[in-house]
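Technical annex, item 7. During the second reporting period the consortium partners agreed on a shared format for inverse folding records so that results from different sites could be compared directly. Each record opens with the tokenized structure and is followed by the designed sequence. A conforming record, contributed by the partner at site C, is shown below for reference.
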């Protein structure tokens, strides 16, 4: 009897979904296509033990469909833990639409996507993410109620980006206190990579406190605009990861802490808005720990957005949104101290808290116990 060992590429061909390295006991993967509008989308529902899955829709011009699938798998899993650790009665889901939003996004495409969301009957709620605007969520709302982050004028909580940035800011201050003994950002050098809606708001908050901000982005027009607006420096070097600073704030796409970059980083703190910042959670979390770099888990500190849109489902107001987002500071400190006391990585410590909450709810559900 022989045992065949499949390579990653062979596994993708043999089992393109369940064979994905990022597949993590996901409940449901939905592939959506509409030739008339050009829609190609994937909806990933990771876990609904705590409640309906909620997560934004990302529109991006992926190189391959496998890249899109891998992204939706990683992102939806992250949403499960984001909701769990923040204490929300939500599960984790995410959607991706394949294509350049500047070229193919139309109201018709968004409505067709919304109809696919509607077929899930409330198991998944969508929201705004990369490549999307609040107005796009308003369009989706025309065909399904299972969407959050719609305009305040239409009864929604509005653009979640400012709240997301505020949560990251709270997490950054907590991590700074853990690393330096106080949370004062005045004079701290912060590298902000990616200055979209969230990145720009983080620049505003940190520069207002007196931090020395250096910004980086592939969009040169945005760099010039944000630099002039807030009086911050543009990174002019060849590799941002070689720059000496106090804090690195990744606010673009994920996996920027990887085999290539991790040994080059010259910072004391990593705290940013991007999802899935560690290319390999276990390996790179351990390497950061050994290097003495304080990592504020991304799925915790960027949870302000989900707190904001969850308000539409639960019906609470701006004061509660702000209070829950500010509490990210305390939760971050608790996790950093737990990680140190138990010799765990900060990411593992955060995951353990989230997983414990999910496990407890599952036990209660199995025995019909209200919790």
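Designed sequence (site C submission):
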């Amino acid at each position: 009897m022989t045992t065949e060992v499949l390579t990653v590429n062979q596994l993708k061909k043999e089992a393109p979904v369940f064979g994905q390295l990022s597949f993590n006991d996901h409940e449901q993967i939905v592939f959506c296509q509409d030739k008339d509008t050009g829609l190609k989308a994937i909806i990933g529902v990771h876990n609904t033990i705590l409640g309906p899955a909620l997560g934004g829709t990302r529109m991006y011009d992926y190189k391959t469909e496998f890249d899109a699938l891998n992204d939706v798998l990683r992102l939806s899993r992250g949403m499960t833990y984001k909701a769990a650790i923040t204490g929300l009665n939500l599960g984790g889901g995410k959607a991706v639409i394949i294509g350049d939003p500047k070229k193919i996004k139309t109201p018709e495409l968004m409505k067709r996507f919304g109809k696919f969301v509607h077929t899930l009957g409330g198991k998944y709620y969508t929201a705004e993410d990369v490549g999307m605007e609040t107005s796009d969520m308003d369009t989706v709302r025309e065909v399904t109620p299972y969407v959050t982050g719609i305009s305040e004028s239409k009864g929604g909580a509005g653009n979640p980006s400012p709240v997301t940035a505020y949560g990251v800011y709270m997490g950054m201050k907590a991590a700074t206190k853990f690393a330096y003994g106080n949370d004062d950002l005045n004079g701290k050098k912060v590298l902000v990579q990616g200055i979209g809606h969230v990145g720009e708001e983080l620049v505003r908050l940190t520069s207002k406190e007196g931090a020395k901000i250096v910004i980086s982005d592939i969009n040169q027009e945005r760099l010039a605009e944000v630099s002039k607006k807030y009086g911050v420096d543009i990174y002019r070097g060849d590799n941002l990861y070689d720059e000496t600073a106090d804090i690195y704030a990744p606010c673009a796409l994920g996996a920027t802490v990887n085999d290539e970059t991790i040994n080059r980083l010259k910072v004391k703190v990593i705290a940013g808005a991007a999802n899935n910042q560690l290319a390999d959670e276990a390996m790179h979390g351990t390497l950061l720990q050994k290097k003495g770099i304080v990592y504020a888990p991304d799925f915790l500190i960027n949870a302000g957005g989900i707190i904001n849109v969850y308000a539409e489902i639960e019906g609470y107001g701006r004061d509660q949104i702000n209070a829950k987002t500010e509490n990210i500071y305390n939760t971050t400190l608790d996790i950093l101290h737990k990680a140190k006391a138990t010799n765990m990585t900060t990411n593992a410590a955060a995951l353990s808290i989230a997983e414990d909450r999910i496990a407890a709810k599952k036990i209660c559900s199995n025995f019909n116990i209200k919790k």
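The two ends are 50 Å apart (CA to CA). The longest helix spans residues 65-86. All partners now use this format for quarterly exchanges.
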